[in-house]
Amino acid sequence: MNLSVSFGGSGFLATYQLGAAQSLLDNAAWILQGAPRVYGASAGSLVAAAVVCDQLLEFARFTKQHPLGLLSPAVDIFQWLEVTLRRCLPDNAHTLASGRLHISMTRISDAKNVIVSEFNSSDELIGVKVNSAHFRLWKLLNKHNNLPLLKNAQTLSV
């Protein structure tokens, strides 16, 4: 049985989610490696992308450099994320992520929640990742799917 995995949105939980993902890799790697879909919302989408693109340790090292992790005022997570993704992702990252990485976002034009799972280029994947982590609009509209799931699918929620 292959479980999908969903990382919910919350900057406060990102460090916990990183630890949970690392624990799964250490103790039950088959869950993450065999997951047909890995969902993420907001900060959880950063963890989901780190899992799918095998960059979990790089992301964990970055968050440990600051006492408050991603919430530290000294951290420009969006700039770091873009630079790190461009440096670390393989050229075919969009191919690896398409169909497997599902990112919850709020579409600005109509304020509807959408799940993005297909990426035509690495630039598009990076743009979606960076934009999915912005939560200002989510707070205003409160229409963001904070724990994306596929109905009728067995999903492990973190």
From TrEMBL:
Keyword match Lipid metabolism: yes
A single BP term in Gene Ontology: triglyceride catabolic process
Keywords: Lipid metabolism
Name listed for the protein in its UniProt record: PNPLA domain-containing protein
Alphabetical list of InterPro entries matching this protein: Acyl_Trfase/lysoPLipase, PLPL, PNPLA_dom
Domain named PNPLA: residues: 5-158
GO molecular function, one term: triacylglycerol lipase activity
Motif (GXSXG): 40-44
PROSITE patterns for this protein: PNPLA (PS51635)
Organism expressing this protein natively: Cyprinus carpio
GO cellular component assignments: cytoplasm; lipid droplet; membrane
